[in-house]
């Protein structure tokens, strides 16, 4: 198209020349037709005039000659004939005079005028064969009789007309018409061209000059000027409006084209244009890039390029889809195919297209389409498929939730663990499952962990539909897209009920006394340290009570160890019942117990508790084998408000105070003091 | 009315110039000699004279002149008078052509009729000499006519001299003319006016005759006398109504104050010129014209060149030359020699 425009611009025909030629041709045609019409009219008129002239001459001559014939004034009527012949330009006039003929002994005396070859007139001599023969060449003739005043026939007069004058007149007329036509045509052409140039072509030239300055695409750069005449003004305004519209449309088209290109580039879409009839195909660079080539490397490209690179199995599928599209069964052609990459591997491509041009017979002509590399999607699909298998068949419960906490899906294991049906979960908020016992801090810690680490692990008491719950080991992981945005959360719930039970049992074994169920020394130490820390932080006193039963050995000896064990269980319950909830009682072994009394404002505040302990422990106990009565010796040590005290020291100090209470008569309590320590040192020495 | 002509055998050039009698005698001798020479050639020749009306003296005198000359040259001649009828004239023409005459002398009824006659003669290859009247064509052997201009010019001179003699040169001259459509009328008027202009004599009105009646001439003359008190002469271009002019002058009581002069001649003019009733007259010479016509044919027969236009002098006669010209007048104008 551009070359043709170039060619047409190189030798553009002149509008003025065309119009001039057309005008001249038209005017010549009109004047020729007019001339022919006039020629025909004039010819008919001339013929009519000739006939009329002959008729009139005959009438005049027949009327005027009669008296001369009667008077034998031969020359007079011959003069008349000569005058009439010359005036009317007749070919010949011949008079037959019967009376004169009688005089001369002939039937008629024949005289007249006849035109010569030179155009002159001469007397007619009927005895001259040449004249007689010439008379026969007349174009038209007529005769009238001549009668005398009394009606007697005197003779006749014949008028002959030649076509030569007619031809001469017609020739002259033709020449005149041609000259007039040429002159008029020239003048008219000149005037028309002048008018056209002045009022029409000049405006067009101005328009052309204004339009000449155009951009690379041929769109004029400047608007047309204002013109004087209304019609051109309308044209100018219309063109300007069109130019403005074109510019706007171009700008819009450019934007759209840019968007399209950006879309194609941004979506990394390969494009193709296929002439179905010829096989000619046009690809963009991305099309080749998808399969690892440059477009230049694939040249020459055709539909065979596509066929060569496409997996044979997929080619068959593609062909079937194409045929369905060609036959109207599919509005669009779409097919996922594998194409051989330059490096040898297969690239998954989704091939889409549509026939945009059809022949009159309904045959596809031109088809446009795109290629999208969906290899990554395919891989993702495979991974997703695997994940779906995991999701479906895992023993752990899995919940998918949206960023907003809406449950998207839950697997079969989860519904089995919780008793919820899948439909009761999906669409509901995740926290609706959370027991109210969990405070907001718990959730915040989860969210902080998810935001920070993308994952949260922890134990969680998973509620069930029936109101129960089970301990679970929960893992919440944020699933992110390729740019790191959280798409959804995956919650993995593992039922750790059995593990938890084992753990509790082990913890009991490790921290509690097997007979009484009271904390053992290990747990006591932990709690004592914790209590020391809390007492110091709170500026309160912690009392460590070391208790040893008085007379327990006798019970063992009397009723046996089982009775002793039974006694220890009863006394343990009594101590727990006597103490506050915040207090701790632990069995160190045998008949030794340590009691922690935290949160004491003063030393004396522990005395009531100590007294209640002495009282409850000295009350007799009914055993399965008999009654038994024991008492308790209690030593008490107190933590310091000023400095950190080691737990073992506090226990030893309490032990030392208990010893002093033993020494002091049993069934009593004794506070550790400096004197106690000194006393014990001396006693041991 | 009678146009009696007397002709004398003399050349018109001699009459026109008025040369000496010696010269006339020489010419006459030569002419007679030529007659004897040509007679031998004309023995078998037959001529015809087609005349419009032989009853008119002028034509009769001309016929006599023709016959006289034909006889002298040995030609037989027949005279055919048309009695002023065109049909008769054509019949005469047809007759003479059938008779295969050798030559025709034609004095046609009119110049137009002459054309047809000349045409028929031409078709029969018969030479024709037209004598007076003329023809509206020129296919004749020769046309013989009076020299009207010269005659009128001479008459003008005669009148001028008479007016001067009477001391009336300051007076005016009235003209009663024949139709000026005729060539002879034009020539007469032009010649007369040239003579008057030569003598610086003024002209009064010119009246043109149409019906040639007495009353017409009388009225024209009376009108001239009435309108021009200084009128001293009246010139009639024709001779036949001279009496009307005289009567008008007399009736005006100016017979002693106004002169009359005429063209053409009447027999009584000789006496009137002698008595002074008429100042003068321009006299044509029909007898001489007839003779000249025959001689022209004869020269043609002899193979000689004939002048196609021949003019015969008009005799300007006054009382001063009347006696001198009287023999010529009697022969050539009045044809009295032939009649005798």
Automatic annotation (TrEMBL), chain A:
Domain PAC positions: 333-386, 456-508
Transmembrane segments: 15-39, 178-196
GO molecular function, one term: catalytic activity
Domain GGDEF residue range list: 540-674
Record keyword Iron present: no
CDD domains, per database record: GGDEF (cd01949), PAS (cd00130)
Superkingdom field: Bacteria
Keywords for this protein: Membrane, Transmembrane, Transmembrane helix
One Pfam entry name: GGDEF
Cofactors (names): Mg(2+)
KW Transport (keyword) present: no
Record domain PAS: where: 283-329, 390-439
PANTHER family named in the record: DIGUANYLATE CYCLASE DGCT-RELATED (PTHR46663), SLL0267 PROTEIN (PTHR46663:SF3)
NCBIfam families referenced in this protein's UniProt entry, alphabetically: GGDEF (TIGR00254), sensory_box (TIGR00229)
Protein name: PAS domain S-box-containing protein/diguanylate cyclase (GGDEF) domain-containing protein
TrEMBL record, chain B:
Record carries keyword Mitochondrion: no
Pfam families (UniProt xref): Peripla_BP_4 (PF13407)
Keywords: Membrane, Signal, Transmembrane, Transmembrane helix
First-listed, main subcellular location of the protein, grouped into a coarse class: other
Name assigned to this protein: Monosaccharide ABC transporter substrate-binding protein, CUT2 family
Listed transmembrane segments: 20-38
Family: Belongs to the bacterial solute-binding protein 2 family.
Entries under InterPro entries matching the protein: Peripla_BP_I, SBP_2_dom
Gene Ontology terms describing biological process: transmembrane transport
A molecular function (GO) term: carbohydrate binding
CC annotations in GO: cell envelope
Keyword Signal assigned: yes
Cellular location(s): Cell envelope
Periplasmic binding protein domain: residues covered: 48-304
């Amino acid at each position: 198209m551009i070359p043709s425009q170039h060619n047409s611009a190189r030798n553009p025909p002149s509008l003025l020349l065309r119009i001039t030629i057309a005008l001249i041709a038209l005017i010549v045609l009109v004047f020729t037709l007019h001339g022919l019409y006039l020629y025909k009219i004039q010819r008919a008129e001339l013929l009519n005039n000739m006939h009329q002239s002959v008729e009139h001459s005959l009438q005049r001559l027949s009327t005027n000659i009669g008296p001369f014939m009667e008077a034998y004034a031969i020359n007079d009527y011959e003069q008349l004939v000569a005058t009439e012949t010359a005036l009317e330009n007749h070919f010949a006039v011949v008079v037959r005079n019967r009376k004169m003929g009688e005089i001369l002994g002939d039937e008629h005396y024949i005289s007249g005028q006849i035109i010569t070859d030179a155009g002159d007139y001469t007397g007619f001599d009927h005895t001259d064969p040449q004249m007689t023969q010439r008379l026969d060449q007349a174009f038209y003739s007529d005769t009238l009789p001549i009668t005398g005043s009394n009606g007697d026939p005197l003779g006749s007069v014949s008028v002959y007309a030649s076509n030569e004058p007619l031809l001469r007149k017609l020739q002259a007329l033709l020449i005149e018409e041609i000259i007039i036509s040429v002159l008029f045509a020239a003048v008219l052409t000149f005037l028309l061209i002048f008018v056209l140039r002045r009022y029409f072509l000049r405006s067009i030239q101005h328009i052309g000059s204004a339009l000449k300055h155009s951009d690379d695409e041929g769109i004029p750069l400047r608007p047309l000027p204002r013109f004087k005449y209304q019609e051109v003004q309308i044209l100018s305004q219309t063109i300007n409006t069109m130019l403005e519209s074109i510019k706007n449309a171009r700008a819009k088209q450019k934007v759209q084209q840019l968007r399209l290109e950006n879309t194609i580039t941004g979506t990394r879409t390969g494009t193709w244009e296929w002439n179905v009839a010829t096989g000619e195909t046009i690809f963009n660079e991305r099309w080749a890039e998808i399969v690892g080539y440059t477009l230049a490397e694939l040249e020459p490209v055709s539909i065979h390029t596509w066929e060569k690179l496409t997996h044979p199995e997929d080619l068959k599928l593609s062909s079937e889809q194409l045929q369905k599209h060609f036959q109207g069964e599919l509005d669009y052609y779409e097919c996922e195919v594998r194409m051989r990459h330059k490096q040898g591997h297969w690239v998954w491509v989704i091939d889409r297209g549509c026939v945009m041009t059809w022949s009159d017979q309904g045959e596809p002509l031109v088809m446009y389409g795109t290629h999208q590399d969906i290899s990554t999607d395919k891989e993702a699909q495979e991974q997703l498929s695997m994940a779906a298998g995991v999701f479906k068949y895992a023993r752990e419960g899995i919940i998918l939730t949206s960023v907003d906490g809406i449950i998207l899906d839950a697997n079969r294991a989860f519904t089995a663990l919780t008793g919820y049906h899948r439909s009761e979960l999906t669409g509901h908020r995740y926290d609706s499952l959370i027991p109210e016992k969990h405070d907001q801090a718990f959730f915040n810690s989860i969210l902080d962990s998810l935001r920070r680490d993308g994952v949260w692990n922890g134990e969680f008491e998973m509620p069930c539909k029936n109101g129960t719950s089970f301990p679970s080991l929960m893992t919440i992981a944020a699933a992110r897209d390729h740019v790191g945005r959280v798409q959804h959360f995956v919650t993995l719930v593992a039922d750790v009920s059995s593990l938890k039970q084992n753990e509790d049992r082990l913890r009991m074994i490790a921290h509690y006394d097997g007979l009484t169920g009271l904390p053992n020394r290990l747990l006591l130490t932990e709690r004592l340290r914790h209590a020391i820390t809390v007492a110091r932080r709170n500026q309160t006193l912690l009392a460590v009570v070391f208790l040893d039963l008085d007379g327990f050995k006798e019970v063992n000896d009397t009723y046996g160890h089982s009775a002793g064990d039974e006694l220890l269980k009863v006394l343990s319950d009594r101590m727990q019942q006597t103490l506050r909830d915040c207090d701790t009682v632990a069995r160190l072994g045998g008949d030794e117990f340590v009691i922690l009394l935290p949160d004491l404002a003063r030393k004396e505040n522990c005395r009531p508790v100590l007294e209640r302990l002495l009282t409850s422990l000295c009350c007799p106990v009914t055993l399965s084998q008999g009654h038994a009565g024991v008492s308790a010796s209690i030593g008490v040590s107190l933590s310091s408000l000023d400095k950190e005290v080691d737990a073992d020291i506090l226990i030893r100090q309490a032990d030392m105070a208990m010893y002093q209470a033993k020494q002091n008569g049993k069934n009593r309590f004794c506070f550790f003091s400096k004197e106690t320590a000194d006393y014990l040192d001396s006693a041991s020495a | 009315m009678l146009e009696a002509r007397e002709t004398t055998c003399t050349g018109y050039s001699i009459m026109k110039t008025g040369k000496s009698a010696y010269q006339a005698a020489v010419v006459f001798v030569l002419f007679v000699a030529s007659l004897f020479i040509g007679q031998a050639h004309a023995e078998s020749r037959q001529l015809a004279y087609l005349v419009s009306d032989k009853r008119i003296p002028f034509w009769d005198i001309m016929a006599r002149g023709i016959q006289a000359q034909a006889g002298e040259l040995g030609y037989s001649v027949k005279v055919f008078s048309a009695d002023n009828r065109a049909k008769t004239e054509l019949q005469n023409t047809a007759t003479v052509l059938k008779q295969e005459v050798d030559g025709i002398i034609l004095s046609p009824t009119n110049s137009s009729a002459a054309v047809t006659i000349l045409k028929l003669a031409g078709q029969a290859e018969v030479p024709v000499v037209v004598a007076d009247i003329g023809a509206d064509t020129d296919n004749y052997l020769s046309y013989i006519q009076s020299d009207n201009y010269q005659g009128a010019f001479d008459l003008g001179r005669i009148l001028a001299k008479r007016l001067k003699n009477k001391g009336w040169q300051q007076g005016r001259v009235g003209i009663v003319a024949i139709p000026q459509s005729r060539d002879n009328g034009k020539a007469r008027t032009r010649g007369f006016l040239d003579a008057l202009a030569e003598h610086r004599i003024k002209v009064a009105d010119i009246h043109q005759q149409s019906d040639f009646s007495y009353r017409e001439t009388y009225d024209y003359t009376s009108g001239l006398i009435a309108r021009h008190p200084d009128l001293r002469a009246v010139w009639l271009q024709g001779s036949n109504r001279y009496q009307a002019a005289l009567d008008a002058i007399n009736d005006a009581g100016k017979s002693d104050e106004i002169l009359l002069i005429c063209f053409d001649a009447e027999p009584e003019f000789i006496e009137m010129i002698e008595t002074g009733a008429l100042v003068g007259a321009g006299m044509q010479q029909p007898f001489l014209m007839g003779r000249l016509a025959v001689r022209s044919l004869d020269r043609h027969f002899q193979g000689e060149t004939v002048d196609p236009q021949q003019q015969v002098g008009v005799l300007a006669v006054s009382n001063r030359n009347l006696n001198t010209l009287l023999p010529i007048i009697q022969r050539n104008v009045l044809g009295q020699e032939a009649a005798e």
